[in-house]
# Entry
Amino acid sequence: MATMLEVSGLYHRYGGGEGAHLAVNDLTFTVETGELACIVGPSGCGKSTMLRCISGLVKPSGGEVSLQGNRVDGVPEDLAVVFQDYSRSLFPWLTVRQNVEFPLRWRRDISKAERRSRAEEALEWVNLPGVAGKYPWQLSGGMQQRVSIARALARRPALLLMDEPFASVDAQTRFELEDLLRNVQSANGSTVLLVTHDIDESVYLGDRVLVLSKSPATIVADLTVDLPKERDQITTRESPEFVSMRAEVARLLHGGGVKEKADVAGGS
Ligand SMILES: Nc1ncnc2c1ncn2[C@@H]1O[C@H](COP(=O)(O)OP(=O)(O)OP(=O)(O)O)[C@@H](O)[C@H]1O
# Structure
């Protein structure tokens, strides 16, 4: 597997002098092509700051981020971000189709017909047939977040960054969106880096879970999720492997050290 994202010695400080605040500290990790990696960390530890630095929205105070071997310096063309707050990221005056097509409108290499077909395809991926002509405010919260995901996927990004994407929907919708993400990711071989504060979500979704410390964020563990590719909201969450991994992530988040791999799998 080729490396898609390389983060090396990344740190970011807000402000200067006495009021300076170190938000992330010396983050080093990679994400491989085709991987769904989750980053889990406590509230306020610096997760969003880290994503903003990776996406080029914020210039980090130090360290390096490379996407497909190219140093990130500004927002890369082949990167898409899905935020938690879908109501603020969709344009209410544009239809669903126009929202999904929007980022493609600036691409000279994509014709109008291609734009239309990519939008339709992406809306099918997220299971939203028949809503292309509606406006975002005519849809439920879960459907709006599906539109945001479709908009990101229509760009066919090399890397999809997701910042707490399911934190604003109800529990049932959240389960549906988690399954949708895993299905779309595996069908397209997409590379995804998803940030969450939800331990269960990180283990259920991830091929890998990176655990962050309290502020300033630093990586305390990088765990491979030893669960089958095909997951199910009931049986997977009840399995001993899931329960044991969740307990390990919880322990690490509360300041415990890293255990041996055999212990993480519950000794099974
Ligand atoms: N623009 C900013 N200027 C100054 N401080 C900031 C700024 N953005 C974030 N911070 C501070 O940096 C720290 C990390 O914030 P950040 O939003 O990255 O954390 P987070 O883990 O994403 O939080 P949450 O889980 O609550 O979304 C916080 O203490 C926050 O107050």
Q: What stands out?
A: Strands lie at 3-14, 21-32, 36-40, 62-67, 70-71, 79-82, 159-163, 192-196, 208-212, 219-224. Residues 261-268 have pLDDT under 50 and may be disordered. The CA atoms of residues 217 and 246 lie 20 Å apart. The first strand starts at residue 3 and ends at 14.
